[in-house]
Amino acid sequence: MILARAIDATRRYGDVTAVDQLNLDVDTGELVGLLGPNGAGKSTLVNLLTGVRRPSSGKVELCGGDPRDPSTRRFLGVTPQETGLPGALRVGEVVDFVRAHYPDPLSKDELLAKFGLSDLAKRQTGGLSGGQKRRVAVALAFVGRPRIVFLDEPTTGLDVEARHALWQGIREFHADGGTVVLTSHYLEEIEALARRVVVIGGGRVLADDTVSAVRGLVAIRRVSLTSGVPLPDLPGVVSTEQDGDRLHLLTADADRLVRDLVTHNVAFRDLEVRPTSLEEAFLTLTAA
Ligand SMILES: Nc1ncnc2c1ncn2[C@@H]1O[C@H](COP(=O)(O)OP(=O)(O)OP(=O)(O)O)[C@@H](O)[C@H]1O
């Protein structure tokens, strides 16, 4: 069953088209990463799919219904990009408050244990660190045993250990059949959690595939070398970065680039050719 669907969805803010005739289906049991540069439209898409905003045109569906309908929202868990917690309440009290909104919530202890938060149960949220607040905010999305969870940049600002604790909670939910859509700027996060990655740019879907396929799609290689002399103009180089004597060239045809360097008698050493990172891949896609 399709749990979240955008059909030709467009959302405008004045002159800005944040989401532009976008189509997306998220099936039951999927874990989907939305990836894209700042301002690509990821949060707006999440806001449309979770009923926070209405599309200017087109349609969105959640669990086969309208995401603004309370009976549909029972199946939904969300952590927006920015959240506020009532500072005077203890973590356990906030969990109880949210639990009260759902017919069959997780127990407080189970939720806190799943997300490694048991030690914080009696702490007032106002006294928590930024990272601890974020972990509580993400855990709250799972209280109501949702069928689908949307997490907008869930681990921004978290240290490695806290990030891994959250990933563990998300993975367990997914392993039990839960559906997850997350946006992230952490490429390792998308790679660590999701097999499907939807690359968003300019409010549109630029690619929708596996992480490795998205990399393969652009097939850009990074050729790094050390050279004391300026390089001649070489065909097929899409960008050049310089770090002292070390040069990093991006190209779709690394073999040709290396042959050209030799043909031009460029003195170089420490040649390295490697696939691009996902970030480089999406920058290339969004520049297309
Ligand atoms: N409430 C709003 N009012 C006006 N413009 C908005 C509003 N929300 C988003 N926008 C604009 O819509 C575009 C898409 O923004 P959005 O926040 O969806 O992108 P994003 O991919 O989530 O970015 P980021 O990674 O920085 O969070 C941007 O140009 C943004 O300035």
Automatic annotation (TrEMBL):
Domain of life where this protein originates: Bacteria
Keywords: Antibiotic resistance, ATP-binding, Nucleotide-binding, Transport
InterPro entries per the UniProt record, alphabetical: AAA+_ATPase, ABC_transporter-like_ATP-bd, ABC_transporter-like_CS, ABC_transporter_ATP-binding, P-loop_NTPase
Lipid bilayer topology: Peripheral membrane protein
Primary location group: membrane
All residue ranges annotated as the ABC transporter domain in the record: 4-227
GO biological process: response to antibiotic
GO molecular function, one term: ATP binding
Assigned GO CC terms: plasma membrane
Protein name: ABC transporter-like protein
Keyword Transport found: yes
Pfam families reported in the protein's UniProt record: ABC_tran
Statement: the UniProt record of this protein carries the keyword DNA repair: no
Subcellular localization, as worded in the UniProt entry: Cell membrane
Gene3D superfamilies found in the cross-reference section: P-loop containing nucleotide triphosphate hydrolases (3.40.50.300)
